[in-house]
Amino acid sequence: MGFDLGTVKGFFKLSPYMVDLGVEPVAVSDGSVTTQLLLAQRHTQHTGHVHAGVMAAMADHTMGAAAQTLAPAGFWVLTAELKTSLLRPGQGERLVCEATVLKPGRMLSFVEAEVHAEAGGQRTLVMKASATMALVPQRS
């Protein structure tokens, strides 16, 4: 589809919530997007770990962006179904989310993501996610 990193960064800037969280795309290819989030205290819950909602939102938007790279012109990708599995508490300096389209379709696409926490050069898988993305016509 010809999406480059600049295009995907622009897509993320259109989402005020992603801007507020600080999620930024760092790599893109057809059917795949990688994002990062530099962690701050505002991303944590009462235990000091990253709030599950932060990780879920990051995974959701990253998976949507991955599906968008394969969407036909004139269509937006919207989440139809989202599943997350928290594997361990998120903590560290940053989160990295890697999303890949497993099955693109004309009306629905299936996408998976992994969220890793990074601290001191160590990378730990903290969440797995999957989503069914619906393709809907853009309104003019």
What do you see in this structure?
The protein is α+β, with helices and mostly antiparallel strands. It has one domain: Hotdog Thioesterase (Thiol Ester Dehydrase, Chain A), CATH 3.10.129. The protein is 23% helix and 45% strand. Strands 1-2-4-5-6-3 form a six-stranded antiparallel beta sheet. Strand 4 and strand 5 (108-119) form a beta hairpin. The longest helix has 17 residues, at 52-68. The mean pLDDT is 95.
Provide the descriptors you would attach to this structure in a database record:
single chain, 140 residues, alpha+beta, Thiol Ester Dehydrase, Chain A, 6-stranded antiparallel sheet, 6 strands, 45% strand, globular
Please mark out the parts with pLDDT under 50 across 5 or more consecutive residues, or reply none.
none
The top-level CATH class is Alpha Beta
Instruction: Determine the number of helices (DSSP H or I, runs of at least 4 residues).
Output: 3
Number of strands: 6
Residue share in β-strands: over 45%
N-to-C SSE string, H for helix and E for strand: HHEEHEEEE
What topology emerges from the helices and strands here?
Blueprint: H1 5-13, H2 16-21, E1 24-29, E2 32-38, H3 52-68, E3 75-86, E4 94-103, E5 108-119, E6 122-137
Antiparallel strand pairs: 1-2, 2-4, 3-6, 4-5, 5-6
How would you summarize this macromolecular structure in one to three sentences?
Helix content is about 25%, strand content about 45%.
